[in-house]
Specification:
- The two termini are 15 Å apart.
- Helix content is 58%, strand content 3%.
- The chain is built from 16 helices and three strands.
- Strands 1-2-3 form a three-stranded antiparallel beta sheet.
- The chain is mostly helical and 383 residues long.
- The structure holds coenzyme A.
Length: 383
C-alpha cells in the first residue's frame, strides 16, 4: 500500500519562496513592481537602449563604451547568417514540428559544431554566448519562412539586430516604429532572475556540463505554457474569442468580457495572467503595453485593443489577477506578422542573453544543484 501523501512543512512544492543562490544579474522586486538589470530599471533600458547594449550589460555588468559596443556588433553581424549544416538539420524536420522543437534542435546542433564546446573558461563561454545570440534570429526567421514555403533571406549588415531579425523573417525593410517596438520586447524578455528556464540552465551548468547543453535544456523549459509558451497561448485565446478587424473596440471588449466570465466560471486558467513572483502586476507590462498601443495605431487595429481591455478588465474584476509580459507581447508579435507558433522562439532569441549570463555566473561560484526529496512511497518490504 502506498503511504498517504503527507506534506512535511519542509517540502516546498515548486520551490515557491525558496532562495537558492545569489545573483547580481537582475533584481525582481514584487513589492515595488520593479525589475533591475545590473541595477538599471528595465523600463529605462527598454526606452533608451538597443538590445545589443542590454545584451552587453547582462554579460559584462556594465553598459558598453563606444569601442566595446562596436566590437560586440562586429561579432554579432558576422554570426548572423544561417549555418548550412543547421539549415540542413532544420530542413530534415517536418514543417509541422513546433518551432520550439526546431530552435532547441538548432541550439544543440550549434553546440555539437562549435570549436569551443568543451571549453568552459569565462572567455570561451562569453564567445559561445555571443555566437549563439547572433545566430538564433536566422533560425527563428527561417523556420517561419520554411513553414510558409519561402526561401532563406540573407542578413543585412546595415541593419541593427532588431531590424535585421524582422528583415530576415519578412524579407521587407521594417518601419522604424515596428523596429522600436520589437527592440523593446527583446529587452523586456531578456532576463528575469531564477525563472524556470534560467534555473534549468543553472542546474545543467552546475554539473559542469557545457553552455550549449544548458541553453538547450532551458529552451525545453521555456516551451511550456506556464512559462514562455504563454505568449503563444494568449493569441490562441484571442483567436478563440474571434478577431474581427471590422468590429468596434467596444463590441470586441464586450465579447472578450463574456469569454473571460465563462472561462473563469469553468475554472479555466487563462494564459497571460498571473505570475509566481509578482502578485500586484508585472513590472514589464506597462512598457510592453505602450509598445502594443503604438503597433495598434501603426497597423490601424483598434478592435485588438478592445479584446485586450475586455479580457484584462473582466479578469481584474473577477479575481484581481494582473496580466504578465506575455499578454501584451502576444498581440504585438501578431500585428508584426509573426506566426503564433513563432512567438516563444522570439522569446528564446532574447532570453539567450539572460540564460548565458546566469550560466557564467553559476560557473564562477559553482555548487552542484541537488535538492532533497521527502520519500512517500512503500515502507521497506521483501521480495
Ligand atoms: N487564470 C486563472 N486563474 C489563475 C491564473 C490564471 N492565469 N493564475 C493564477 N490563477 C489562480 C489559480 O487558479 C489559483 O486560484 P485558487 O487559489 O482559487 O485555486 C490562484 O490564482 C493561485 O494560482 P497558482 O497557479 O497557484 O499560482 P502560481 O504562483 O503557482 O502560478 C502561474 C503562477 C504563472 C503559473 C499562474 O499564474 C499561471 O498559470 N498563469 C498562466 C500562465 C502564464 O501566463 N504564464 C506566464 C508567466 S510569466
Amino acid at each position: 500500500m502506498l503511504q498517504e501523501t503527507v506534506q512535511s512543512p519542509d517540502v516546498r512544492k515548486g520551490l515557491a519562496g525558496v532562495v537558492v543562490d545569489y545573483t547580481a544579474i537582475s533584481k525582481v522586486n514584487p513589492e515595488t513592481n520593479s525589475l533591475l538589470y545590473r541595477g538599471y530599471p528595465v523600463q529605462e533600458l527598454a526606452t533608451k537602449c538597443s538590445f545589443e547594449e542590454v545584451a552587453y550589460l547582462l554579460w559584462n555588468g556594465e553598459l558598453p563604451n563606444a569601442q566595446e559596443f562596436a566590437s560586440l556588433v562586429a561579432v554579432e553581424r558576422t554570426g548572423r547568417a544561417l549555418d548550412p549544416t543547421v539549415r540542413a538539420v532544420m530542413d530534415s524536420l517536418p514543417v509541422t514540428a513546433h518551432p520550439m522543437d526546431v530552435c532547441r534542435t538548432a541550439a544543440s546542433v550549434m553546440g555539437a559544431r562549435h570549436e569551443l564546446t568543451e571549453d568552459s573558461s569565462p572567455e570561451a563561454n562569453l564567445r559561445k554566448a555571443v555566437d549563439l545570440w547572433a545566430a538564433m534570429p536566422a533560425v527563428v526567421a527561417y523556420d517561419q519562412r520554411r513553414r510558409l514555403g519561402q526561401e532563406v533571406v540573407e542578413p543585412r549588415d546595415d541593419l541593427d539586430y532588431s531590424a535585421n531579425f524582422l528583415w530576415m523573417t519578412f524579407g521587407e525593410e521594417p518601419a522604424e516604429d515596428v523596429v522600436e517596438a520589437f527592440n523593446v520586447s527583446m529587452i523586456l524578455y531578456a532576463e528575469h532572475s531564477f525563472n524556470a528556464s534560467t534555473f534549468t540552465g543553472r542546474v545543467v551548468t552546475s554539473s559542469l556540463s557545457d553552455l550549449h547543453s544548458a541553453v538547450t535544456a532551458a529552451i525545453g523549459a521555456l516551451k511550456g505554457p506556464l512559462h514562455g509558451g504563454a505568449n503563444e497561448a494568449v493569441m490562441h485565446t484571442f483567436d478563440e474569442i474571434g478577431i474581427r478587424p471590422e468590429e468596434s473596440p467596444e463590441d470586441a471588449a464586450a465579447r472578450a468580457r463574456a469569454w473571460m466570465e465563462d472561462a473563469l466560471a469553468h475554472k479555466k486558467k487563462v494564459m497571460g495572467f498571473g505570475h509566481r513572483v509578482y502578485k500586484h502586476g508585472d513590472s514589464r507590462v506597462p512598457t510592453m503595453k505602450a509598445a502594443l498601443d503604438k503597433m495598434i495605431a501603426h497597423y490601424g487595429r483598434p478592435e485588438l485593443l478592445g479584446l485586450y481591455n475586455g479580457l484584462e478588465q473582466a479578469m481584474d474584476e473577477a479575481k484581481a489577477i494582473k496580466p504578465n509580459l506575455d499578454y501584451p507581447a502576444g498581440p504585438t508579435y501578431h500585428l508584426m506578422g509573426f506566426d503564433t507558433q513563432t512567438f516563444t522562439p522570439i522569446f528564446v532569441a532574447s532570453r539567450i542573453t539572460g540564460w548565458t549570463a546566469h550560466i557564467m555566473e553559476q560557473l564562477a561560484s559553482n555548487s552542484l544543484i541537488r535538492p532533497l526529496s521527502e520519500y512517500n512511497g512503500h515502507d521497506q518490504r521483501s521480495l
